[in-house]
Every structure is written in C-alpha cells, then in structure tokens.
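Notes from the 1:1 (GR / supervisor)

We went over the backlog. Supervisor wanted to see one worked example end to end before approving the batch request, so GR pasted a single chain during the call. The sequence is below; no edits were made to it. Supervisor asked that the structure be written out right there so they could see what the output format looks like.
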Amino acid sequence: MKKIEAIIKPFKLEPVKEALVSAGIHGMTIQEVKGFGRQKGHQEVFRGAEYTVDFLPKVMITVIVEDNLVDDIIEVITDQGRTGNIGDGKIIVTNVEQIVRIRTGEKGEAAVKS
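Structure output shown during the call:
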C-alpha cells in the first residue's frame, strides 16, 4: 500500500475531494498547511506598511491506497488540482508498512476499505 499526500491550493480542495470520492477513495485526511516553494511568498501592503508573506496557505490531502491505484489517484489529483500557475503544489507517494483499523483490529488493505 501507498500513502499519497497532495499539497494543493485551498480553492481546489472541493474539486479534488469530489474526484477522489468518484474514483473510489473511501477516506481521506485534510489539513490546512502553510509553506512555500519556488514562488517564495509575495509582498502585501496593510495600512500603508509593506510586508512579506513567506508562507502561503495550502491544503494537504492524505489518502492510503492499494499499489495498483496509485497512478490513477495521481492523475485524478493532478487533473483536478492543476491551475497551470506557479504554486499548484506537489504530490508525494510513500510506502506504507502497516495500517491497523483501531475499532476492529483489521490490518492491511482490509483496514483501508470501507
């Protein structure tokens, strides 16, 4: 199994979430995060004072999927999360050694499925 973490622009959360559910994802975790990459923040003016916004607001979606679904899920996130502008985000895929559903004790893929 794999853990897919996607860092996207906040206004892209709903289309990505809906597409993931349509693709058969049974659960996901959403976190509001802040960060920067190539865009390195931007300058803003508030009450006449200029300041730098270094960390930009993003949303991180985490899903656990079977190995054979990884490419499909990456495509769904990319298609729905892309604006074509700098700062669209990143997708990180890592191996999951073990997963256990606390309520039932189910392990592995059984713990991920509904």
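Supervisor's comment: The CA atoms of residues 58 and 85 lie 14 Å apart.
Batch request approved.
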